[in-house]
Amino acid sequence: MASTSDIRKGLCIRYNNDIYKIVEFLHVKPGKGPAFVRTKLKSVTNGKVIDNTFSAGHKIEDVRVETRKYQFLYNDGETYHFMNTDDYNQIELQKSILDAPQLLKEGVHVTVMTNSDDGIPLSVDMPVSVVLEVTHSEPGVKGNTATNATKPATLETGAKINVPLFISEGDKIRVDTEKSTYIERIKG
């Protein structure tokens, strides 16, 4: 058993007869009344996200997990195929367990967390950022750079994000996988 002081991003807990991964959390100590922890939990079975508040000192049941490195191979619709980089075993995961499937490019290495008790995959942690090529983007309007103007762009994986006006087709850009946002253009 763990308590609210052990809450951290990525922790898997058993709650309401399901297993949830903590996506966000915030410790709150109001001027009046007891402290509490506000959390955003994502179900690892169906992908549903819920908000929950735990009072300070509340006991939570954490789930023992093992992490392994996997390489993304390909997807066929809703099923994504990964290969363990240590023993070359392949696993199939459903799209609902992935946080940002639209940013997965073949060959990307991810960390898969599995339940130590039964070996069932719980979640897939993407790298912090990925480098993708812009396949389609409208040309920027000249003189429209007074503010942080952006335009929509389609990436090689099919994902659509907003990029600065100076980005053009064929450019490689770094994308934040957590927020699906543009970080920087890659030179060369």
Q: What can you see in these coordinates?
A:
The chain is mainly beta and 188 residues long. The protein has three domains: 2-62, SH3 type barrels (Roll); 65-125, Nucleic acid-binding proteins (OB fold (Dihydrolipoamide Acetyltransferase, E2P)); 129-186, OB fold (Dihydrolipoamide Acetyltransferase, E2P), CATH 2.40.50.140. It has no helices and 16 strands. The protein has strands spanning 2-3, 12-15, 18-28, 36-43, 49-55, 59-62, 65-76, 79-84, 90-94, 109-115, 121-125, 129-137, 150-155, 160-164, 172-176, 181-186. The strands form three sheets. The protein has a six-stranded antiparallel sheet, with no helix packed on it. Strand 15 and strand 16 form a beta hairpin.
How would you sum up the major sheet? 6 strands, antiparallel
Strand content: over 45%
Rg value: 20 Å
Q: What is the β-strand count?
A: 16
The count of helical stretches stands at: 0
CATH level-1 class of the largest domain: Mainly Beta
What are the main properties of this structure?
single chain, 188 residues, mainly beta, SH3 type barrels, OB fold (Dihydrolipoamide Acetyltransferase, E2P), six-stranded antiparallel β-sheet, five-stranded antiparallel β-sheet, flat
